Amino acid sequence: MLYLMFTQIVSAFGVGITPGNLDFSAQIGGSDTKSLFVINTGTEVSNYKVYVDKDYADLFDISPDNFTLSANENKEVILTLTPQISAIGDFNFMAYVVVSSTSSDFSVGSGIKVPVHAKVSNSGIIITILLILIITGAGVFYRIRKN
Q1: Distant-in-sequence, close-in-space partners of 101: CB < 8 Å, separation ≥ 6
Q2: Is 69 a residue whose pLDDT tops 90?
Q3: Which of 17, 32, 73, 100 could bridge across to 69 with cysteines, CB 3.0–4.6 Å?
Q4: In whole angstroms, what is the distance from residue 101 CA to residue 68 CA?
Q5: CA 23, CA 69: separation in Å to the nearest integer?
């Protein structure tokens, strides 16, 4: 397993992440979950925020998306892709991990961009529809045969 760590330090706070990219695959009606580990590479307690490009924000649940870490501390962030019916295809975008000091907001800080690939298919919904049709059809056939 390959682990990458990217570090960017500004003043006394910094951020590292692993893995260096995220690859999701989900069917409509399903989900896919990945872990992103955020590391405080600085020397001070710092605030962290994790988010994805706004065009894809409705497809993801990020937990926790805001947290504080002490120096050399790390935190597992869970990203869950739950695609909507209109989100079929292959998508490439960014997730962001931004760090700031505890005395400032996130407009002043440093961060890392994490490449994200998400593949969303609709084969799950097709199977569900087929099963409903088969079950419904069997019920109709049974009622006709019974009468």
Answers
A1: 11, 12, 13, 44, 46, 47, 108, 109
A2: yes
A3: 73
A4: 9
A5: 26
Give per-residue pLDDT as tens, 16-59: 999 999 999 999 889 999 999 999 999 999 999 999 999 999 99
Distance of CA 127 to the CA centre of its chain: 25
- The two structure tokens encoding residue 31: 């989900």
Look at residues 83, 77, 70 and name the one whose alpha carbon lies nearest to residue 27.
Answer: 83
CB 93 within 8 A of CB 56: yes
The token duo for 12 is: 């006394």
Placement of tokens 């292959």 in the chain: 90
Report the distance separating Cα 108 and Cα 98, nearest Å. Answer: 10
Residue 113 forms beta bridges with which residues? 96
Question: 90 with 116: CB under 8 angstroms?
Answer: no
Q: Are 32 and 119 in contact (CB under 8 A)?
A: no
